[in-house]
């Protein structure tokens, strides 16, 4: 039951149904889903570990958003994505390379007017590189960071000119990994995520000035 409540709460947070700062009182959540408080308490604990909820002055709440958090997330993600690309170039198997190529082909085939499709195929490409690193700890850390970013619903891929740039950078990253050029792969991945950070900050600033947009 706690797993079911966890998934339902997580989806409500990620979708924006529960807005940043929304209170998460155990008794209220239990009443909302018609269950006891124990599974709610366990679900909230998991969501706190995921970074989706936080403790406020009056108990648990949906984690708030801030430019400082964006900087913190990307400061770590830039390093980890570069490490994953480096490891993929050094340790990726033929099967790993096939999966990365396939993921990029899926990106090429995605509708550039469909933000959800772009985001999904982009995520699949990065996850294929994570898997090719053969470093479980690295994959776990990157997955946790990804769960933080889902609270920022708009994708950077819709920024003007970003999608063609992403496709080009991913192709460059793939070539470096195929060639076993670890330094090049790491450099391209780092630069790629640095630009994503800068776009994310600009998007946040725009949303901050135009509430509800």
- Reported by name, the CATH topology of the largest domain is Four Helix Bundle (Hemerythrin (Met), subunit A)
- Strand arrangement across the biggest beta sheet: 1-2
- Rounded mean pLDDT is 90
Rg of Cα set: 19 Å
CATH-derived architecture of the largest domain: Up-down Bundle
Number of beta strands = 2
Structure description:
By secondary structure, the chain is mainly α. It folds into two domains: 2-62, Arc Repressor Mutant, subunit A (Orthogonal Bundle); 67-209, Four Helix Bundle (Hemerythrin (Met), subunit A) (Up-down Bundle). Helix content is 72%, strand content 4%. It is built from nine helices and two strands, in the order αααββαααααα. The chain has helices spanning 2-15, 26-33, 37-50, 67-91, 94-109, 115-132, 136-149, 162-178, 182-209, and strands at residues 53-56, 59-62. A two-stranded antiparallel ribbon has the order 1-2. A hairpin with a 2-residue loop joins strand 1 and strand 2 (59-62). Helix 5 (94-109) packs antiparallel against helix 8 (162-178). The longest helix is centred in the last third of the chain and has 28 residues, at 182-209. It starts with a helix and ends with a helix.
């Amino acid at each position: 039951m706690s797993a079911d409540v966890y998934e339902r709460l997580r989806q409500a947070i990620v979708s924006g149904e529960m807005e940043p700062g929304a209170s998460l009182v155990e008794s209220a959540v239990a009443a909302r889903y018609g269950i006891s408080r124990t599974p709610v308490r366990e679900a909230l604990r998991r969501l706190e570990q995921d970074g989706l909820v936080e403790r406020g002055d009056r108990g648990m709440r949906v984690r708030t958003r801030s430019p400082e958090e964006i900087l913190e997330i990307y400061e770590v993600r830039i390093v980890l994505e570069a490490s994953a690309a480096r490891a993929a170039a050094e340790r990726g198997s033929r099967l790993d390379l096939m999966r990365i190529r396939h993921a990029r082909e899926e990106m090429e085939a995605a509708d550039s007017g469909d933000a959800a499709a772009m985001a999904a195929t982009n995520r699949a490409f990065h996850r294929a590189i994570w898997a090719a690193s053969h470093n479980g700890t690295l994959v776990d850390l990157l997955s946790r960071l990804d769960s933080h970013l889902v609270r920022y619903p708009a994708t950077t891929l819709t920024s003007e000119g970003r999608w063609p740039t992403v496709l080009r950078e991913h192709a460059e990253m793939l070539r470096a990994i195929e060639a076993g050029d670890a330094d090049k792969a790491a450099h391209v991945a780092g630069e790629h995520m640095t630009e994503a950070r800068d776009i994310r900050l600009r998007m946040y600033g725009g949303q901050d000035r135009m509430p509800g947009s």
